[in-house]
What we know:
The chain is mainly α and about 130 residues long. The protein has five helices and no strands. Helix 1 packs antiparallel against helix 3 (about 45-75) and helix 3 packs parallel to helix 5. The chain starts with a helix and ends with a helix.
Amino acid sequence: MTELSIAVFANSMLLGVLLLLQPLWRDIRHGMAYTVGTFDERKPETVLERRLVMVVRNQIEALSLLLPLAVLLFTQGAVESALLAYAAIAHVASRTLYAVVALAGIPLLRSLFWTVSFAALGVIAWVTFNAVL
C-alpha cells in the first residue's frame, strides 16, 4: 500500500508544482503587477502558458481517477501486491515524464507517457476491484 500512498502524494505534489509554475511564468513574463491584478485586460498567452494549462487540466483528470481507487484500497486495509506497487511506480514516473515532455512540446513522447500512465491506472483499478470484490 505504501507505493500507492506515494503515488497519490507524488501526483498531488506534481499538480502543486504545475499550479505554481503558472503564476511564476506570468511574473517572469509580465511582472508581478499583472499577476496580482484583476486580469480585466488579458494579455495573450504564450505557447508555454497554453501547454501549462493543458498539463494542469490533464493532471487534475488523472488525480480524479487515481484518488477514488486509492480511497477504496485504503478502506480495505493492507493489500499486498507487487503488481499494484509496479503500477503505482509506473504511474508516477509516466505522469512526471508526461508533464516534462508536454511542456517541452514533444507530441509523440507525450502521448506515449500518457498511455503508460493510463494503463497503470487500469492496473491499479483492476487490483482495487479484485481487493474490494
